[in-house]
Design brief:
The protein contains three helices and no strands. By secondary structure, it is mainly α. The protein has one domain. The radius of gyration is 68 Å and the shape is rod-shaped. Keywords: ATP synthesis, CF(0), Chloroplast, Coiled coil, Hydrogen ion transport, Ion transport, Membrane, Plastid, Thylakoid, Transmembrane, Transmembrane helix, Transport. InterPro entries: ATP_synth_b/b'su_bac/chlpt (IPR002146). It comes from Ismelia carinata. This is ATP synthase subunit b, chloroplastic.
């Protein structure tokens, strides 16, 4: 026992031969300690480490599998979105073409409507001019007739004396009486 105590107390690099004790040489004891610790860890920790690595491997595989599934769904959604985009672009082109056609059709309709309106206005103008010409012509005729009648009356009044005037009135009354008998 003295040797064991001596080795604890010995500050020398090597304990005495044939005795059991602690080696205080740090470099020599580290290699031995490390190999013992590693051996114990490998022997006892092999199952735990294997389970940990298996669990980690399984989680990584599940993550990869989930990532692949997400990737596939994302690709499907992308394809659907591209299909919808193509459809929307086609619809937009149709709307654009139809819109241009509609605009052109409306433009032609507006031009036709404008021409018809101009023709109607021209017809109204011509009718108004004709009406005004006829009105003016009728007024001129009436004025000429009135002047001619006044001239004739003036001439008759100056030429007729009262006896001739009475005979004309009697003749006219006779004509009117004869016409009344014919109509009855």
């Amino acid at each position: 026992m003295k040797n064991v105590t001596d080795s604890f107390l010995s500050l020398g690099p090597w304990p005495s031969a044939g005795s059991f004790g602690f080696n205080t040489d740090i470099l020599a004891t580290n290699l031995i300690n490390l190999s013992v610790v590693l051996g114990v860890l490998i022997f006892f920790g092999k199952g735990v480490l294997s389970d940990l690595l298996d669990n980690r491997k399984q989680r990584i595989l599940n993550t990869i599998k989930n990532s692949e599934e997400l990737r596939e769904r994302a690709i499907e959604q992308l394809e659907k979105a591209r299909t919808r985009l193509r459809k929307v672009e086609i619809d937009a082109d149709q709307f654009r073409v139809n819109g241009y056609s509609e605009i052109e059709r409306e433009k032609l309709n507006l031009i036709d409507s404008t021409y018809k309106t101009l023709e109607q206005l021209e017809n109204y103008k011509n009718e108004t001019i004709n009406f005004e010409q006829q009105k003016a012509s009728n007024q001129v005729r009436q004025r000429v007739f009135q002047q001619a009648l006044q001239g004739a009356l003036g001439t008759l009044n100056s030429c007729l004396n009262s006896e001739l005037h009475l005979r004309t009135i009697s003749a006219n009354i006779g004509i009117l009486g004869a016409m009344k008998q014919i109509t009855d």
